[in-house]
């Protein structure tokens, strides 16, 4: 799953502003880790209906002249886990302090750091069943033991007797990650480092910023004037939005005051010609595809509700890597933020698009305020999922 990465007009931090490794092994969990943990604890639904799905990366061996060594893969994974300590980080609830804590497991040869399995299949349909299980199952991970990564190797039966150490053409590698340790932007980082580690070319720096450092820094931000600045901004855009006055959208079942945690999705494809026109418009207006699509969505919602509402609030999952320091880290950073717009139907679409672009830049600037604190401004006593309606 990909997340929206908003542009940031803050520029690159100076040397003094850059975050550095704090060389710590224990700390409070990040706000996003805490949010996901509470979500999983409070909303108990069957695995197949859960909104919290594992992140799964699929790699397939496709070249007849290429094979992959399972032994070298295991060494590569250990090297990645050594570099990215979030992949060996325990999450545990401290009942005495009423808080979720994280701690990095020390590197010891006898410890288990990830789940590993090899399966043999005869038909493509079996791969689909395995993939669905990888996406939904909670049993593959153990947060209190720091098992947040799983490697599942799938061989076709024709390749099974060639060499026990080799993956051959048509074989598949599934890397599954618990949501608390991995987001969409982490995928390219992991795959890049996996390639380097497999070739024994991965470098590590003990002084490099770690995810646990980020979780400390983000709390320190809220002890400065930056918190008041962010709260003032979010108040300014949420103050006039009435959360109780929901859009009268077409529905096939009544709304509930509290979210159930059940989810479903619909996939569709845009026509190639339409996609090309969107890319052209994006370039001409100097906006992102997200800003263009969001602008179209505002217009769509306005028309769908018979032009009765000009206060429209849309929730979006954003990458939330608001500093250059965070772009090379594996971890969970995403946040769900409210994009509230006073919709003016007298404006041209290009002007609406400019307003949405300005809104996106501002939200990016103040996205460091945790989701929980933003939602409390909107509805102080809301459930853990107070927004969005759409």
UniProtKB/TrEMBL annotation:
GO terms for molecular function: 2,3-dihydroxybenzoate-serine ligase activity; phosphopantetheine binding. SUPFAM superfamilies: CoA-dependent acyltransferases. Residues 65-379 form the Condensation domain. GO terms for biological process: amino acid activation for nonribosomal peptide biosynthetic process; enterobactin biosynthetic process. InterPro entries: CAT-like_dom_sf, Condensation_dom. GO terms for cellular component: cytosol; enterobactin synthetase complex. This is Condensation domain-containing protein. It comes from Didymodactylos carnosus. The lineage of its organism: Eukaryota, Metazoa, Spiralia, Gnathifera, Rotifera.
